[in-house]
Amino acid sequence: MDSPNAAPGRPLSPHLQIYRPMLSMMMSIVHRITGGALYVGTVLVVIWLVSAAAGPSAFATAQAVYGSILGQLVLFFYTWALVHHALGGVRHLIWDVGHGFEPGQRELLYRATLAGSIGLTLLIWIVGYALKGAAG
Amino acid sequence: MRTPLGQVRGLGSAKSGTEHFWLQRLTAVANLPLTLVFIGVVATLAGSSHAGATATLGNPCVAILMLLFVLSATVHMRIGMQVIIEDYVHDDLLKLLALMANTFFAIVIGLAAAFALLKISFGV
């Protein structure tokens, strides 16, 4: 509560800087950060789609920019953010139906989210490179 | 009989609650298969020509799934960012403006993506 008429000097509940960083809090924070990054990144998706709708020359420019080293680096992290946020969402859905709250299960879910997001992102990019040019 | 609940209902910081929670989950579940489609389509079109990309994106099944993804994802990201704004922006006017900007952004993104996909599909 940030009520302006709260009495001064009252104890506040401890905030982030009090705690030793733990996987649980890091994963919670990263879920929000990846969500925010995906939000901003939708601009890249829209530019790509609109350039395809605009015509061959606009699309060729977009493909060249997105296919550059910097472009691919951004898209690689965008892929990871998307996969990580999706797997984090699955974790939340598991909690929503009342499962996975035991300490061991929680830790397993966090590790599976992290390992899964890194593994799947690499897999997507390997398949992406293998398919390069497949659609003509 | 009037219980105390009736006096506080709708007075939380967001003025609403369960609909927001439910819509976030509903779109999250929808996003899971649609994100797989989206990643598959984009990965397939890496480095492709304009003709190849528009042929794929103009396929009715691909276009419909991509449009569903745009709808679900923009609703999901709008209410997700709404929570972030409500958590961190405490000034009332600033919060109001940020929430408006958030809605505008989501609508612009959703409409632009949908328009592009439809234009590619209808080939005008």
TrEMBL record, chain A:
Origin: domain of life: Bacteria
UniProt keyword annotations, A-Z: Heme, Iron, Membrane, Metal-binding, Transmembrane, Transmembrane helix
Binding-site residues, heme: H85
One annotated GO molecular function: metal ion binding
A single cellular component GO annotation: membrane
Gene3D superfamilies registered for this protein in UniProt: Fumarate reductase/succinate dehydrogenase, transmembrane subunit
Residues that span the membrane, as ranges: 29-53, 65-87, 108-131
Cofactor note text: The heme is bound between the two transmembrane subunits.
GO BP term, example: tricarboxylic acid cycle
Membrane-related topology note: Multi-pass membrane protein
Cofactor: heme
Subcellular location as annotated: Membrane
NCBIfam families assigned to the protein according to its UniProt record, in alphabetical order: succ_dehyd_cytB (TIGR02970)
Family: Belongs to the cytochrome b560 family.
Subunit structure: Part of an enzyme complex containing four subunits: a flavoprotein, an iron-sulfur protein, plus two membrane-anchoring proteins, SdhC and SdhD. The complex can form homotrimers.
UniProt function note: Membrane-anchoring subunit of succinate dehydrogenase (SDH).
Protein name: Succinate dehydrogenase cytochrome b556 subunit
Organism this protein belongs to: Hansschlegelia zhihuaiae
Highest classification ranks of the organism: Bacteria, Pseudomonadati, Pseudomonadota, Alphaproteobacteria, Hyphomicrobiales
Primary gene name: sdhC
From TrEMBL, chain B:
Transmembrane annotation, as ranges: 21-45, 57-75, 96-118
Record localization: Membrane
Source taxonomy: Bacteria, Pseudomonadati, Pseudomonadota, Alphaproteobacteria, Hyphomicrobiales
Bilayer disposition of the protein: Multi-pass membrane protein
Protein name: Succinate dehydrogenase hydrophobic membrane anchor subunit
Organism domain of life: Bacteria
Pfam families named among the record's database cross-references: Sdh_cyt (PF01127)
Known cofactor(s): heme
Pathway annotation from the record: Carbohydrate metabolism; tricarboxylic acid cycle
Gene3D superfamilies per UniProt: Fumarate reductase/succinate dehydrogenase, transmembrane subunit
Originating organism: Hansschlegelia zhihuaiae
Entry keywords, A to Z: Electron transport, Heme, Iron, Membrane, Metal-binding, Transmembrane, Transmembrane helix, Transport, Tricarboxylic acid cycle
Role, per record: Membrane-anchoring subunit of succinate dehydrogenase (SDH).
Subunit-structure text: Part of an enzyme complex containing four subunits: a flavoprotein, an iron-sulfur protein, plus two membrane-anchoring proteins, SdhC and SdhD.
